[in-house]
Here is the input.
Amino acid sequence: MGFLPTLKAALATRQGVFLSSTPTAEVLKGCSLFWKRIYVFERFITEVGDDEELFGLSTVLFDNDILKVVENDASELRANLQDKIYYSLGKEKRDYLYSHADRIAVTCNLAKATESVIEQSARLDEQNDSLIKTIKTSVLEGIRKEWYGSLAESRIGDDWDKLPRKFRSEVEDNIKSHIELQFHHISNHSPPWEFSHLKYRNEVLLRQLSISSALHVEPNDFSYYAMKLNNFNLHDAERYLQGWRGLLPFVKRQALDAFTVEDIISIRKSRRWEKAMNRLEELCQKISWSHRSMKFTKDLQDSVISEYQEALGQEKASAGELGKQLTKGVGLTAISVIPIVGPLISTASGIVDAILSFILKENKQRNLAFFLNEIKRR
Here is the structure.
């Protein structure tokens, strides 16, 4: 185990998420639906720069104070944008980032005392055979993913199963050979498990933890973070994104990417969003989590269904008293059934809102059920 301090389980994971994985629209939207802030390192700009959809999504998140680039300060971001590596973005994108640097950048300065912590942790990592093996495995998996990903994107990948078995075998052997050569080259030229790289990894991790309470990492890096942080399982961002994916059937969406950015901004402005997401966080933490198990999603959905039923049942029990409160000075007209509430009530918006408000005050667990119902009707 490294020397770095572990995250406290009591820390509110919803304050912010650090996105260190390859950005996708699905992950960016999912993070925006759950966390208040998304933090990224500067390399994020180059990763999304050539993708018009991702860059457009990012600018909306920047403009709404959701997405932040971690830098020493805004002036450093402006200076870095003059580097030639950003020329490929084009003048319009560079000008946008430059003029919005004060809004985009967020400061993350580590105290000088942490330098010795970083070095001590790197020394311990260097002697930890299990951790070194984990890093090597992660590097190898990254190379495999790159090669097989390229194959899947090629024309050959589209018709792979239709190709002659001998040809497929030759391609497989060729890919395996290149993977071995690439890994051998990395192993002999400043490998990621050398002290200097271990020190850098620890510095990055400390920067992430100093500003964020949840981490979204590449799948092949999960084991590394799990070894460095005792309770990373609770602060693994994918846990909560999977929680949101489990909610999708309740809001008639097929994927997180089905939400438009306008949907997301509107949802975040809902007065129920904060409490509903807090409740989702509680449910996600109570349910046993594993990247490879579908049981998490099923258990979460069962919990949400139970909360719907509880909300409906408890509301029926208090319908008499609630009716007395509502009928004082209010005429009940246009009687109909509201499915999630149950009893016969007026469809007049004021009365419906009064009933929902009454139920929300009764039990915080109902916030999630009614929040989902609100989204479903959008």
User: Anything to note?
Assistant: Residues 1-12, 325-356 have pLDDT under 50 and may be disordered. The longest strand covers residues 67-71. The longest helix spans residues 129-153. The beta strands are 17-19, 38-40, 67-71, 105-107, 214-216, 335-337, 344-346.
